UniProtKB/TrEMBL annotation:
This is Uncharacterized protein. It comes from Sphingomonas montanisoli. It comes from the Bacteria. Residues 39-61, 68-77 have a biased composition (Low complexity). Residues 23-32 have a biased composition (Polar residues).
Length: 409
């Protein structure tokens, strides 16, 4: 500190000499001033040095405090898929249809399911879900993505019972789903509030992910429920086993009429005694002969408003069938939604006058109930038309929407 003080004194003396001509102070006063300054300057200097030293020490202490603060913990990994089983099957189907079931490169797979980049977070979530359901192997980062045995049985089953069993196995591949299914086995799920609390407390589902879990879980139940022979019911019931659980529920091997195909055909038609009979005895067999699964609005059990459910089924359907007999307003409204979604539609009617003139150039199956064989003829015609619409959808879409369809592709 003496060395620093001496240097400071020297600087002050030089400064005083420079100031002397300006202030005009006497030599005595200058000497007195110089004599007085060292002690005060030294004191000031010591205080300043101490202050500087304190500041110098304060900086690393501050940095240390910041470093010692606990960092925000990383979010826990998702233990269940973010998407439904039905959505995740798109990955497996793309591999089967686009690459004959052989392992597929990630970039090709991404484009096959509608994404331009393998880095698209939507594709990554879908691929991660397919892995969690046990449908495929491979993260898609470097190695190709291939089908598992479960995935093969879902998209290309070798026996009628293979697909339902594979779907059940895929659902149970998710440990969280398996635990909740076992807990509520055979029981109706509780109301949202109680279900949410149980998921958080009993199964450790993070509170912020509970609603997402419920949405995915119940959607999967409804999807699996469609593949059961007995599809009656008004709410999600955790009876996902395909063997008999109750006296009134048949097993999958008992020749039931559960869902058979992944591709759906949404049927837009009036309801009523005769129309319901036409649907069961003519439309359903024709649709299944075309390799499609028939779905009608009164068979929907998912949550949401009726129009939301109808729009969802229209969007998912491979082909649609519309019976325009009687010019039913609801049917025409749903038809407008189908055209807006660029979906191929096959028409049928008991009177050609019920079909708008602008749509008569499309596939229209006209039936005459006065013909003794009208039912069989209509069934065969619809089967042919539906197969054609499935193979070449553009020809079953009106021209303006067909252009939009081409642009989208």
């Amino acid at each position: 500190m003496e060395e620093v003080s001496t240097i400071e004194q020297a600087v002050d003396q030089v400064s005083d000499k420079l100031e002397a001509p300006i202030t005009g102070s006497s030599e005595a006063s200058t000497k007195a001033k110089n004599a007085a300054r060292p002690s005060s300057k030294s004191g000031t200097n010591k205080a300043g040095s101490a202050s500087k030293a304190g500041a110098a020490k304060a900086i690393p202490a501050s940095k240390k405090d910041i470093a010692s603060k606990p960092s925000k913990p990383a979010a826990a990994p998702w233990t269940f898929p973010k998407t439904t089983l039905e959505e995740a099957i798109k990955i497996a189907r793309a591999i089967e249809e686009q690459n004959a079931g052989n392992p597929m490169k990630p970039d090709m797979l991404a484009k096959a399911v509608g994404y331009n980049s393998v880095a698209d977070w939507r594709f990554l979530d879908l691929l991660r879900a397919a892995n969690q359901y046990g449908l495929v192997t491979g993260s898609g980062k470097i190695s190709p993505v291939g089908l598992t045995q479960i995935g093969q049985d879902v998209v290309a089953p070798s026996a009628p019972t293979a697909r339902p069993k594979a779907l059940m196995a895929a659902f149970r591949s998710v440990e969280d789903f398996q635990k909740v299914e076992d807990f509520y086995n055979g029981k109706k799920l509780p109301e949202d509030e109680f279900f949410e609390n149980n998921l958080y407390r009993e199964f450790g589902i993070p509170r912020e992910r509970v609603k997402s879990f419920i949405e995915t879980f119940t959607s999967n139940l409804n999807y699996l429920h469609a593949f059961r022979p007995d599809r009656s019911g008004t709410g999600p019931v955790v009876t996902t086993e395909f063997r008999q659980r109750e006296p009134d529920v048949s097993g999958i091997d008992d020749g039931g009429t559960g869902r058979q195909f992944l591709d759906t055909c949404f049927v837009m038609m009036p309801f009523g005694q005769w129309m319901d009979a036409y649907y069961r005895e003519i439309f359903v067999p024709a649709i299944r002969e075309a390799g499609l699964e028939p779905i009608r609005a009164d068979e929907l059990f998912s949550t949401g408003s009726v129009i939301e459910q109808i729009w969802e089924q229209i969007s998912r359907a491979k082909v649609l069938l519309a019976d325009l007999t009687g010019k039913n307003a609801n049917v025409f409204y749903e038809l407008g939604l189908a055209h807006a979604a660029n979906k191929p539609v096959v028409f049928t009617t008991g009177d050609l006058e019920d079909v708008p003139f602008d749509l008569r150039h499309l596939r229209v199956a006209v039936y005459d109930i006065r013909d003794p064989a009208w039912g069989e003829k209509l069934r065969n015609t619809l089967s042919v038309y539906l197969k054609a619409a499935k193979a070449d959808p553009g020809k079953s879409v009106p021209q303006p929407f067909r252009k939009q369809m081409a642009v989208a592709e």
